[in-house]
Structure formats: C-alpha cells, structure tokens
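User: quick one, fold this
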Amino acid sequence: MKKLLLLSVLLIFACSSSETQDVSDGSDIQFYTFTISTTIGGSVDTEGGTYEQGEQITITAIPEDGYIFKNFSGDENSTDNPITITMDDDINITANFIVNEVYSYNYNVPSHDWDNYHAPWFNLARITDSLGFSQNDSYNTNSAYADFNFDGYLDIMIQPNVNDGVPVESFFLINSGINTFFVDNNFPISYDTSAISSRKTVVGDFNGDNKPDVVRPQGGHDLQGKPTITLSNEDNSYTFKLIGNGPEIQPHTISSGDIDNDGDLDLFLGQAGEFDGFLINSGNATFEWKWISEVINDFDNGFLYPNGGYGYYGIWSSEMTDVDEDGFVDLILGGSYAENDYDPNFLGPTVFWGDGSGNYSNLNSTLLFNAAEINYAEGNTISLSHDYAVNDVDGDGIKDVAIFSECSDVWMYHIIKGSGNRQFEDKTSDWLPNNILYNSSSHVWIKLMDIDNNGLIDLVEGEPLIRTIDGVFRTSVRWEWNGGGFTEIN
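Assistant:
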C-alpha cells in the first residue's frame, strides 16, 4: 500500500497576538488569534483571524477525494467533525487527513493469508537491535504486524522471549511512517492476565470491529496455559486477556480461519497429538472449545479424547487458507510422521478440504507428500515440518505449497505443485536447487511472496535477517521463480 507523507499545509496565518481595544462606553474588549491549518488531503470551511473574546467558531473539515478526516489536533483534540470552539485564548488547531486506503487493511482473513499476502517483510532483527532489545532473545515467534495505532502504517507488537515460566512483557514498536520505529511506552493497553512465552503468533479481526487483534498460545516444555488475545476496544485501546473455555495446554501451533463460514475467525491449536482442538468464535471474540475429534471425527486411532473420538499424534504445525480457491477455508496439518503404516500419525503434511460446515474429514483430505518416500532427502529423515506457505508460484492459476521441515540439525525445504482437482506433485527435485541446508540454524517460518515486486514469487524465511541462537546474524535463505523453477539467491 502506497503511503503519502502527511505534510502540513498552512491555510491561514493570523499572526497577531491577543489585544485589547477601547470602545465608546469605556469598556475593554479582548481579542484573540485563531490559527487553522491542515495536512495534505483536505480543507476546512473556516478562516483564521482575530476574534472577539467569547465568540464561538464552528470548524468543519472537508476531505478531498481519496482521503478521510482523522482528527483535529493542537489546542483542541477531537475526532468529532465539525467542532465548535469558544475564543477565550489564542487557539491553534490542525485538521488532519489521511489516505482513505489506510483503513482498507482487512484483518478478517486466515492467519496464513495475512502473514503471506499482506504483512510486510520487515527486518525485525535490525529493528529490535536498534531499539535496545536483548540480542539473546528471538522475536520471530512472538512478533505481530498490524496498524495498531490506526495511522495507516504497519507497526510491530513483540513479547521478548524469556526463561520458561517467566511472564513476558508486551511492547509496541510504532512505525513513524518511513519504516523507522520507536517504542511507545504509553501505548493504551491494559492487562487482565499475565502469560509466558508463545511459540507462534497470529493476527486477525476476532471481534468484528475491523481492527487487528493478536492471539498467542502460551506454554511449552511441559508448561501449560490458556491462549491469550490482545483485543481491540471501542476507544482504540487494547486489553490483554485469556481466551476460550478449553483446557490449559502447551500448543506448538496455532492458526486461524473461518472454518464454519459464519463470517468470523476460528482458531486451531495443536499439541503434538494430545489436547489438540479448535476454539470456535461466536463472533465477538468469545470462543467455545472443541476437541479435534469433534471437528475431524473419522480418525480411527491415536489419542483418545474425552468425547470418545480419536486424533492423530504428531501435529506440531498448521495453517489455514483456501488452497483450492473454492471459497472455503482449508486446514493444513503436519509435524512428525508415521514410521510405519500402522502408526497413528499422518504419512506427511495433509490438506483437509473445507466445505464451510465447520467440520473436516480424514476421508476428504489430500497428502502433499509421503515423508517416507521422498527421494531428495540425502539420507535425512524429517523429524517435523514447521511451516507452510501457499501461493501460485508458476502463474498457472492453481496454488502451490512450500513446506519447511527439520531433520534434526539439517533443514529441508519442499515445493509442491498444485495440479488442479486437489491433486499435487512434489517438484522439489526439479524446481528447488540446494533444498537441504547444512551448518545453518534458527529456521522458523517461510513465505511465498514477491519480496522485490518484480512479478516473480520468492521462497524466503519470515524476515530478511535472522539472528541465530548464538547471536550471530545471517541472511534469509531465498529462492526466486525463474519461469521453470527456482533460482537460488541466498
């Protein structure tokens, strides 16, 4: 989205200071100076000048095409339009306008779509470094990108990682408008709970007010808790609180999307095959817990849930997006896979096809690849798949899927071509050179997006510069589509 700098344009200057004038009856009349200015994008219907004490002035802000009125600032701060002031002192006011499209961010989309199609590729490591945050912490699992102060520029919310079990703090890094940031220590947020570190963060509009909310699971390494939401309020403040009526868990994954097609975003949380489940949204960010066996009710083995149904083990990762573009949100699940055909795990990452009913079926799913049968692993075995990114890589109108997997201390990237009719072909060997990375570290998230706006899709990590576990910076891995495959860039 193109941003325009808000350059102040002075409309009327009335530079005289307050003064007293004699009148014929011997009394004094006090006069004050009224100064009005605007930013680019609009005008006002009132001129500045010298006005008599007690005189009332009504000011109406008039936006130009493509702009909207934001607020009046200066000696009078108000979002009302028009406003009426009483001249009891010298008054200086600015009418502020912003580009209309800054309010067109649509947060009511699946978490995958916000992250891969809308969120920026900010250099988070450099930003946090420049603001004095500890280099011993990693921020990519807890970062959230959205316009949190509603000025049209995308900001960052982080919760620095700390030792297991220690409550985290929330920080808002506010975008100045040119992608430089400052920490807003007075950001309007209240806390109804404390929380410990999260393994993943999703952004969405969960209460239907067209503002961004942030959901994080908390827990890990046998530390459990309920997920949290940073929820927007009517007065543009936020509240940090627990959500849902589900159990305390330690999820390794979270994803959001409207699985029941009722207009609001639901959540999936996974804990590697036990306590996996969904938080179904009522529409105002209140959620009802459902075990995975209540939503996908045709697993025949695995973990036995309280409702008597099963769920597979090994669900460490998930995403929601409309893979086949039929208007319904699909669910991608994966993690650690079956070593034997009879193991109650997925054979590989699997797409569950949505129909808007709020339920998925094991029978109505598609395996993206069989982890035991891939021929490009160089003897490595996938310990778990971490992340998925979906986009139309080759421009044929059918979405493809990139996958990032961990093989102990070796990292493997996959590219799976969509063939139509919910069929896929593993093109990793043909399309993705040097897809296995040795002697590298700290790989977490991936994106399929055109990062340099040249019309070619890139496969990259979640940010351009990665801080490794020993505090050293390395450049994101990157491949770029070349028309017949990917070219390795980094």
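User: anything notable?
Assistant: The helical segments are 111-118, 124-130, 292-295, 428-431.
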